[in-house]
Amino acid sequence: MSGFLGKLSPTKRVVAGNNNDLPLFYSNSMERCPRDTPRVTATLGELLMNVDDASNDHRSLEMASPLTSSASSFNSWTSAPASSITSSPFVLSFTDLTYSVKIKKKFPPFCGNSSSNDSALNTKILLNGISGEAHEGEMMAVLGASGSGKSTLIDALANRIAKDSLRGSITLNGEVLESSLQKVISAYVMQDDLLFPMLTVEETLMFSAEFRLPRSLSKKKKKARVQSLIDQLGLRSAARTMIGDEGHRGISGGERRRVSIGIDIIHDPIILFLDEPTSGLDSTSAYMVIKVLQRIAQSGSIVIMSIHQPSYRIMGLLDRLIFLSRGNTVFSGSPTYLPQFFSEFDHPIPENENKTEFALDLIRELENSPEGTKKLVEYHKEWRAKQQAAARYYNNGITLKEAITASISKGKLVSGAATTTNSPSSFQTYANPFWIEMIVIGKRSVLNSMRQPELIGMRIGAVMVTGIILATMFTKLDNSPKGVQERLGFFAFAMSTTFYTCAEAIPVFLQERYIFMRETAYNAYRRSSYVLSQSIISIPSLIFLAACFAATTFFAVGLAGGASGFLFFFLTILASFWAGSSFVTFLSGVVSNVMLGFTVVVAILAYFLLFSGFFISRDRIPLYWIWFHYLSLVKYPYEGVLQNEFEDTTKCFVRGIQIFDNSPLGQFPNAVKLSLLKSMSGVLGINVTAETCVTTGIDILKQQGVTEISKWNCLWITVAWGFFFRVLFYFTLLIGSKNKRR
User: Fold this and answer.
1) How far apart are CA 637 and CA 95, in angstroms?
2) What pLDDT score does 694 carry?
């Protein structure tokens, strides 16, 4: 045992960057290497620094000598001599991690006092005093049956559980690992492959490189990094293939998993967490994925993963194991110690038996027994205490930030290297400024949308079809009382349609929701950059849609105002599209289900139309509902276009005998109507003839209660609503995308 412990002791481990580690990038990417073979580390930064600016071959990245590049790469990132910083191997330690959740009882107790036993029934312990450590250059796997706490432990170590809910300590090189620092130096690969389906493998990795690698790194070196990573992930044959989804044929499951890993290791993180990276893969694909992770670890990273049931070949690649049973540790250590551990526990592993399968089967049998795994848990504590008595950690007397700076000086953690020239003790939170992030996000969104022209075509088609129907239904409206009613109906329907057609934006963010959460959880880009970019790239399409709708309806319906009237009508339609799109985008950040989102949007827009002033004028709305009238998004564009249509004081809409058109008297002959007008003139003392103007446009506006706000103010208020909902969308992302358990 002392030999084994000595092998694991940090005092006898090598430092990433010397000539005792295996390179992450070398040509024969799928060959298995003996664990004790002398090896050479070539981290990402070292290799990137050796890419010849005049060379066009990306394979020069693989042929660069790490032994000659360390000093040059260090001097290129920092101003200090290469020998001034001493490196120290990283050790991630966790002690007594405990996490529990409250479970609501389905049925409350009928009688009796609320005792401590009752409260215990409401609490489920997911992690119970878990301790261990993971070393640089090694892979640690967490094993156990479903519900044992594997993913929970990975989430706890990856800072995906709220600090006030998790008890225990997590340290890196003996220092408490701060949340902000952990986001910079680590990456997390989710169990689900969350990728843009219409991008190719190469494009996906390239966008990740543009997010994760600093602006100071040339475009050529970023491309070289991506090409080398494609080779090392075994994705060369699929590099130009789209990711695909249910409706589009794409790459295989194993290739998707390797792409998911690639986008999170593009910046060469110090710590890599993975939640069941082999889930759903065949044995060969699973082995290839773990082989890639082994090279990542041996390049100077700490790799920690959960895995359900590894094969014999995968077991040969793992350095440390933790077996969990219902939140308790039942074994931790090297796979080579499994036989000794269970033999001393009086359950020896048969000679030809798969050690992992035997251990998992035994744990399951004990879980189903009356005593459970209590004895195994207690025995493991005694066995681990003996190990810890012999193991000691030594950090050469340097701080954690100094160790990270030393690692960066060798090319590790490229995204954090840009700031080390000024302050070795500080690390860049984001690799790029916000405007670079906005450009990359916008470029990716546009590219993804352009490859789905059917979605763009459907929205244009919906707007055009609606416009054509309205244009043919309300063709050349006259200035009669019926024409006035028809105009009011046209404006109400047109304004509400602009908002309803924005409902298609709901699935846009919901499809990207978990991709966004994954990317922002570890500082790929700022949330504000995402909101601003999505807002800006939506404007051209909104302008096109507004122009199509306005041109289709304005002249066909015969609306007033000429060129200036058309311009205002177009701007109002555009402002409505902007406000509606912003409102729907905000709701998509609040509601996480597509069908529920559509239901909420349709219901709220119906309420907006109801309180807009079309069905019932403002003066007739009850006081206890008047507040909703002013919150209605439809109110302001509706009132704006009404004023644009009826503001001309010289235009008459009701003349003489037309006052009888909307009454039973309208059915009488004109001669009778003229006689009535003469009688009315005598009573009123005013001469009212058949051509006398009785109602102007201003009178119609007063009848509709449109007198408070000018048409231009209605336009600006509509635009302001759009900005307001974009700000709310940002706060929903800020609050609702923490991606942490409570």
Assistant:
1) 61
2) 83
pLDDT digits (tens, 9 = 90+) for 388-413: 655 555 556 677 777 787 777 766 66
628 in Cβ contact with 636 (< 8 Å):
no
Q: How far apart are CA 396 and CA 535, in angstroms?
A: 50
Calpha distance 227→209 (Å, rounded)? 11
Give 277-294 pLDDT, tens digit per residue. Answer: 888 788 888 888 898 899
Q: How far is CA 342 from the centre of its chain?
A: 44
CB 260 within 8 A of CB 202: no
Give the residue from 173, 179, 144, 139 showing the smallest Cα distance to 158: 179
Cα dist from 316 to 139, 141, 532, 658, whole Å: 11, 12, 48, 94
d(CA 218, CA 230): 19
337 close to 155: Cβ distance less than 8 angstroms = no
* Cα–Cα distance, 615 to 612 (Å, whole number): 8
The confidence score (pLDDT) of residue 741 equals 65
3-state class (DSSP) for residue 385: helix
In CATH, the number for domain 91-101+123-193+266-389 is 3.40.50.300
Contacts of 86 (CB under 8 A, 6+ apart): 396, 398, 406
CB within 8 Å of 385: residues ≥ 6 apart: none
**Coil, strand or helix: which one is 578?**
helix
Low-confidence ranges of the chain (pLDDT < 50): 1-86, 110-111, 114-120, 416-425
Amino acid at 382: E
**DSSP summary character for residue 467:** H
Is residue 167 within 8 Å of residue 327, measured between CB atoms? no
pLDDT in the model for residue 453? 85
- The closest alpha carbon to 62, from 213, 189, 236, belongs to 236
**Calpha distance 169→177 (Å, rounded):** 9
What distance in Å separates the CA atoms of residue 740 and residue 94, rounded to the nearest whole number? 19
Q: Which pair of tokens denotes residue 50?
A: 């050796």
3-class SS at 341? helix
Q: What is the DSSP letter of 121?
A: H
Domain locations in the chain as residue ranges: 91-101+123-193+266-389, 440-648+697-740
CA distances from 538 to 184, 230, 505 (A): 31, 32, 10
- Helical ranges in 266-394 per DSSP H: 283-298, 312-315, 338-344, 355-368, 374-390
Region of residue 327 (left: phi > 0; alpha: psi -120 to 50; beta: else): left
Rounded to an integer, what is the distance from CA 517 to the centroid of its chain? Answer: 3
